[in-house]
Amino acid sequence: MYYLPPDKNRSSLFNRLKLILLALAIILLAGLMGVVAGYAQVKVPAWAFRPTPTPTATRPPVYDLAEAEADFSEGKLDESVAGYEQVIQKEPTNDMPYIRQARLLVYTGDTGKAVERAAQAVALKPDNPENLAYYCRALDWEAEYEDALEVCFCATELYPKYADSYAFLSEIYADLGNWQAAKKYAQQALDLDPNSANAHYNMGYAMEVQGKYKEAAEEYDRAIMLAPNIAPFYISAGLVYHTMGQYRQYQKLEPYQIAMERFKGAIKLRPFDAEGYARLGWTFYFDGQYRRATEALEQALGLDPGYDKAWSYLASVNYTRQRYEEASKLYPTAIELVENKFLRRARQIEIYTEVPTLSGLSYVPILRGRFAKPTLPTDMRSVAELKIVPYIRSTDIKIEQSCAELLAQSVKAETIIVEPKQPLTFTAAFSDAKGMAVLDLKSGNLSIDLKNMPFSNGSAYQIKMHFWPRRVDNIGFFQPDVNHRAQLNVKLGEKLPAPVEYYYQLGLAYAYLDPPQCDKAEPWLLKALEIEPLAWNPAWHGLRICPSAKSPPTPIPTATPYPTATPTK
């Protein structure tokens, strides 16, 4: 192979190209170094930036309101209550979410908060018939019957064509046992609005208190047809049909079967509410379906371990089936829950002080707090935030105000009778006072922590507790320390008695074991006789199996047979 000699001209050209490329590389490198050194002073084009996300706009309250209304129409009461709460937080001066939430809180069992919300709606807009009517109903469910009547009569006076006001008047009189007045006002509501679910519901209630169960069931069913997504309507109807099942004249209607369907309707609407399952289980029990009764009652306890009726129903099922060991384990919990139920009736706490009035020195509330219902069944604490109570002189109230305006005024401030120009100095003195009260629903311990409390002039502060229904207890007196603070602990030891059958069936369950456990049966049998010492009490039969030296004088003996598989009324 031959190699040609290099071309001199080509080699020199190649060298020149290398020099040019090297020079360009040096220039480019210098430019890059300059860019890096002066980067902070270089303006980056807009397209080089990553766009900043646009802030999400706050959801308008009207959407929350519409969603809450939709949840209510679908029977989602808890979701609707939460939705209205969101609207209240965004629009605290709008009366509508307050009263709509109050309407549902009655159905969910939080009647104390229902009163508070309805009162706020009246304070914001007293000239609204819906606000007045549902404030009346909330007061009725809190057993404040006199106040409820005053509000409902005010509503009928100002708005005589608003049907629900008459329907709720009927409900109050039914609660008071006056079925004539209850029927009268329910009929007035129906005359004004034949399609009012509340009117039909309360006509059913008026019939129920008379013992006219068939007519009551028909009215409850009409209310369900008009408002098919309110679970408490199904519960009320189911309870009436359940009652009808215990009377021979209604057996052709198969009332237990209808009661089960009504309770299932309530469960479908509120699948996480224990009451529907407990009522269904109890109806299964009366219908002789013990296995299904046990399953339904266990579901109720799974949802709410603090539901006393579910414990007692399940204990009764086992007792009837002669499963005495299981019954003896269930009844103590049922009894404990009922006896401690008094604490769950706590509604409000107030701090009183002595102030001068026209009639002399008088104790008036200066701090007030309402106990909040625990959000979870397993929560054993109820909390109340104490705030200053506002006041107005009686002479500042205008006589020409309507009854609704006077109600709104009473919600906003307490009335005190003093000299027309006397300054309300005690309200200014407590302007910084505040406190917190925590009630342990299991132990009965009440702890109170008050701050910025001025020294009382000679007299001590007084603590009062309000309980459902219509009960006020004086808890005690105190004085703040040098730091204007008071930390108190009070023991509320009162208990409510459970139904007498809980005690004697628990005692008999121990007595019927093989061998009898008389040491455990005796205290429960004696407790039952302490409540009801008459001869019909089956506890006497238990004491024949387990004699006791502590037994009271024996009345005329009555035979008590062993439980059978058929429950008695």
Commentary on this structure:
There is one protein chain. The protein has 569 residues and is an alpha+beta fold. Among the domains are: 59-145, Tetratricopeptide repeat domain (Serine Threonine Protein Phosphatase 5, Tetratricopeptide repeat, Alpha Horseshoe), CATH 1.25.40.10; 345-491, no CATH class. It is 53% helix and 13% strand. The protein contains 23 helices and ten strands. The protein has helices at 8-37, 61-73, 77-90, 95-108, 111-124, 129-141, 145-158, 163-175, 179-192, 197-210, 213-226, 231-244, 255-269, 274-286, 290-303, 308-320, 324-339, 341-344, 403-412, 425-429, 500-511, 518-531, 539-545, and strands at 346-357, 360-370, 381-388, 391-393, 414-416, 434-440, 445-451, 461-467, 471-478, 486-491. Strands 9-8-1-2-3-6-7-10 form an eight-stranded antiparallel sheet. The chain has a two-stranded parallel ribbon with strand order 4-5. Strand 8 and strand 9 form a beta hairpin. The termini are far apart. The model is unreliable at 1-14 and 35-50 (pLDDT under 50).
